[in-house]
Task: inverse folding
């Protein structure tokens, strides 16, 4: 994709932007790829532009890093795409606009998920799985402390994921968290039918923990984390957020918050999967 549009983007990429990509530029050469459109039967609102661009073949980590570095100029956030469960080209995409994410407050959303589950679960189950908090949602955890820049950690994790042989997606977004909604990702559909509130939580993690969206799959999400919790107490509070965000990672993993907290203490990547 060598030809450049007037705005400085490779030919066709301006279609991803509502304004045609005016003022955007990208100097990185892209491999062959194509645009992915949502299936009209699955789309809640009509759209006149594709959800995202995707490479035809797996890419190397250095391409991800180069695109990440130019995001400020290009407005295109790179995402490594796992195709091991279902190909993205199947078109099961339900894009939302970033403005929908603005309608959700992470603390309120997580508390609502927590309270709804506790209202339906047996008290013994609540006490066992959600100890030490029980039915009382603890709210948002304090921020972590980054030792290295978030961008450096994101580049490292892209290297880890790229070894799996993953193609690349490009989404027209101001920040990586918004790619979840704009690309029409439906990975958490069985847990929460709306992606924007989950993207709002990831926005908050970007700010508090230096998290960056690096990869996505049919029902998975991969984040790099520059400022993970460093103590068990802090990790336990973060684990409570993760439980409300993606209970399957805990319930079908270690089984309780204490065990999960041990797994994320000082770790620079968070992996989520929904059953």
Result:
């Amino acid at each position: 994709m060598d030809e450049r549009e007037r705005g400085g983007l490779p030919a066709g990429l301006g279609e991803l932007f509502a304004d045609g990509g005016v003022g955007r530029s990208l100097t990185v050469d892209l491999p062959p790829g194509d645009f992915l459109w949502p299936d009209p039967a699955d789309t809640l609102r009509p759209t006149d532009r594709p959800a995202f661009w995707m490479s035809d073949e797996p890419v190397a980590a250095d391409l991800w890093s180069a695109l990440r570095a130019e995001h400020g100029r290009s407005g295109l956030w790179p995402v490594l795409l796992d195709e091991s469960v279902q190909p993205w080209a199947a078109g099961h995409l339900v894009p939302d606009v970033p403005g929908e994410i603005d309608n959700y407050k992470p603390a309120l959303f997580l508390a609502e998920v927590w309270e709804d589950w506790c209202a339906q679960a047996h008290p013994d189950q609540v006490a066992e799985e959600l100890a030490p908090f029980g039915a009382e949602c603890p709210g948002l955890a304090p921020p972590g402390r980054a030792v290295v820049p978030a961008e450096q950690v994101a580049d490292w994790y892209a290297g880890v994921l790229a070894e799996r042989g993953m193609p690349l997606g490009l989404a027209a977004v101001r920040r990586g968290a918004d790619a979840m909604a704009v690309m029409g990702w439906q990975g958490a559909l069985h847990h929460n039918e709306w992606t924007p509130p989950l993207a709002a939580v990831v926005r908050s993690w970007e700010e508090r923990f230096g998290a960056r969206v690096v990869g996505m799959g049919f029902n998975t999400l991969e984040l790099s984390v520059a400022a993970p919790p460093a103590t068990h107490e802090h990790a336990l509070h973060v684990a409570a957020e993760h439980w409300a965000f993606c209970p399957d990672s805990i319930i079908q993993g270690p089984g309780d918050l204490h065990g999960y907290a041990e797994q994320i203490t000082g770790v620079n990547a968070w992996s989520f999967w929904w059953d």
User: Anything to note?
Assistant: Residues 30 and 120 are 49 Å apart (CA to CA). The chain has eleven helices and seven strands. Residues 106-120 form the longest helix (15 residues). The beta strands are 33-36, 52-55, 76-81, 168-172, 211-216, 220-225, 269-273.
